[in-house]
Amino acid sequence: xxxxxxxxxxxxxxxxxxxxxxxxxxxxxxxxxxxxxxxxxxxxxxxxxxxxxxxxxxxxxxxxxxxxxxxxxxxxxxxxxxxxxxxxxxxxxxxxxxxxxxxxxxxxxxxxxxxxxxxxxxxxxxxxxxxxxxxxxxxxxxxxxxxxxxxxxxxxxxxxxxxxxxxxxxxxxxxxxxxxxxxxxxxxxxxxxxxxxxxxxxxxxxxxxxxxxxxxxxxxxxxxxxxxxxxxxxxxxxxxxxxxxxxxxxxxxxxxxxxxxxxxxxxxxxxxxxxxxxxxxxxxxxxxxxxxxxxxxxxxxxxxxxxxxxxxxxxxxxxxxxxxxxxxxxxxxxxxxxxxxxxxxxxxxxxxxxxxxxxxxxxxxxxxxxxxxxxxxxxxxxxxxxxxxxxxxxxxxxxxxxxxxxxxxxxxxxxxxxxxxxxxxxxxxxxxxxxxxxxxxxxxxxxxxxxxxxxxxxxxxxxxxxxxxxxxxxxxxxxxxxxxxxxxxxxxxxxxxxxxxxxxxxxxxxxxxxxxxxxxxxxxxxxxxxxxxxxxxxxxxxxxxxxxxxxxxxxxxxxxxxxxxxxxxxxxxxxxxxxxxxxxxxxxxxxxxxxxxxxxxxxxxxxxxxxxxxxxxxxxxxxxxxxxxxxxxxxxxxxxxxxxxxxxxxxxxxx
Length: 655
Description:
mainly alpha; Cytochrome C Oxidase, Chain A; transmembrane helix; copper; respiratory chain; Cyt_c_oxase-like_su1_dom
């Protein structure tokens, strides 16, 4: 028993910070259980959310998970900045610092940004292309629950067993069992394997959805720009995530079964891990930012009240980025001795990819030119992106210059660039999408005044946080440094960066308050089209009914809903009763949730080398697969009369 307790609760899980987290987790869990029990919500939770296969509800669950992970990753960031605020600080010890920056990077990339992207996919894409649902609704739910349980697995590591501490890239030999005993790194590997499987399934799902389920008349060149960026992102996922999964599995084998794929002392090749990781890692940058490009295209066109300028050019540029993104991965390790010829090729490809990226910025500017711009919060995030991403892109080209990269590579200049691109591109874009599609998700509008407070706090805090880090990089401060001495002259810039991080945190708090406030006091969207939108999702009520469209629309123009409104001179389309037919929809199912739970049990067994628990989890997965395979009663029919009643209550039925 004592050895088991020592394994579950090593010293790294019994520090004051971790014990405080334990208390908060227990209190929060007790409050949730009390609420669900007191108000008899267990059945509702199971019926409406845990077993749903409705893409709209899955999108909302992705969004809730992403905001939760943004809080967790943001707290990690504040802890890192608190440690670096002043010289010779001992707020965090070196091991604790390693754990915090590992979990910060991993959570923000895999468990915040990716689910926020998938939230936007689920909320907008089927409605935007005139589809009833995604191509594989049950697979969509499985993808969510694999992500959710992987995120839960990763997050319990800091209170049970110990956190991973080898960095978010987790290069060997830092991950080798000889140098990194304990189970922390196993948590990292299993969480990324499981969420990677779910992410790959999501890529397949939305690729098929867009290619096969568009409304009649919606050719590829009539698709909204967000649908295009979702399409190419899905392609990138299919080719980028398998190398990551392979790297994680082989590293796990090295740790658990004594193989030597990357173990250098036994003839392994750590550089092979680095290649596999960045074969995923650089396309991942575009997996993160391309959906934001699509969101900006929709937001800028809507709030400029103009068609997107240079639509064809935008399409070809995202296709070019998709292709070129696979020829840039080696620029992440120019300093590792790949050779001059290799470095020159990847340096040129890195600079070349800036061209199609820059094209989009000019297109958005020309779209706004002479437009009647409405300065909503969603539009403010889009405008803030342009200067922010220009700086991030320019510094990326600097890093692509091989001789310069030898100076910048391991410095805070790289940290500033990476955050400049990921926050200024991905996060700004996704927050723009959240504000833009919030009425469609919830049926209520967010408070614009609160949204502008959140925007300015977050935006100004961002610049105050990361601009000093470029200077720190020039002054020689290296990344992964947990403390520093007075004599380097870094103190004032680090303090400024820390203040900016806390201002960003204040912006996040105001934003979440706005989300909660709107659900209680927010203005109800009665039209379904509060922004006078241009694409088909705005032709449906807010929130959209379970069946999405009572009648699948026929598309005749690129801005399909805008064209329909011009023809009908109305922003509400009334449907004739005889046009409504019975609609077949997928049934809710417990299988996706139980499959995610089985993967979680299997993962816990693998993390702690408890093989009998791993076998139980694997058998649970097999049973779920078999039951799902032979479940032929997986659809339900929504009667015509129910649809008529719903549409009539919404004022959308003629007569």
